[in-house]
Amino acid sequence: xxxxxxxxxxxxxxxxxxxxxxxxxxxxxxxxxxxxxxxxxxxxxxxxxxxxxxxxxxxxxxxxxxxxxxxxxxxxxxxxxxxxxxxxxxxxxxxxxxxxxxxxxxxxxxxxxxxxxxxxxxxxxxxxxxxxxxxxxxxxxxxxxxxxxxxxxxxxxxxxxxxxxxxxxxxxxxxxxxxxxxxxxxxxxxxxxxxxxxxxxxxxxxxxxxxxxxxxxxxxxxxxxxxxxxxxxxxxxxxxxxxxxxxxxxxxxxxxxxxxxxxxxxxxxxxxxxxxxxxxxxxxxxxxxxxxxxxxxxxxxxxxxxxxxxxxxxxxxxxxxxxxxxxxxxxxxxxxxxxxxxxxxxxxxxxxxxxxxxxxxxxxxxxxxxxxxxxxxxxxxxxxxxxxxxxx
Length: 392
Description:
This protein is of the alpha+beta class. The protein contains twelve helices and eleven strands. It is globular and about 65 Å long.
């Protein structure tokens, strides 16, 4: 799901422009005239704002994968490389995972273990940078160093509450010449941010050349647990916020409540609203000069993806028949998420990407090309109606 906001960017533009000019020419004052306070007028947009704007195109890969508690090794490594489509590589990779650990009492209630997140970042980094060595490991080995803008683990001090962290307050372009020279060597992609909450995990990577070319700032993370009792992390979301040349981005990876019973869609809708309400990003020292969004809806570009668990309002045999004929358009008419959007229950005003692939839920454990429940009665396999539960 995707949402674009224009007004928030317009309101922040004068301060961002002043701050950017100050970095480029620290000895020269730069002032925004009082007339710019009328920044929502057409004259201000035409005369002041638009002449100052240049358009930069970036290729963004946003993907989601429920790995069902499997460790990142063996065949998953091959699957990951295929999924990332490296022959047509993107500038930025934003990867969301669900169930990177089995969801049981120990993992949900116990202390957060960063091991699986680290292992996944190792695998992702190897896939993206296999030909370039592995200096991208540096921030993983020394995550608290102020010299490292990039970041991996953010431990949760309290598992039952929402957590937000300020990863870095210093824009990338303020780094020293020595640091820039180090960026020219080694790997092609750098890890920008990573966050884990029980089984929900997100990892953001960016081409190093972008770090030299653009001002990347205000990289922050947040998590909201809304599973058992409304506050445990078996369900919920982790979010990453960042600014690229003054345009703010928010990426939300979510794992919502499962279930095909009547009313389960209402639980999912409620969890979405809770994630919107409770997600917050901390202030940084730079926010006075260049206010950065503290909530999801304050961002210019918002991406929501993950295992949303919305199902099909369709009986199993009819669903499988439409899948067999590859009639995706007819199948989408029964999509629960689409119905909920149309009825105003969730994601009003959001855009969903084109769906031109088979439902991703739920494949049999024994054969990833066969949907669960396709065996004769008595096989012991649960009957699951296929659906698009994982969307980006």
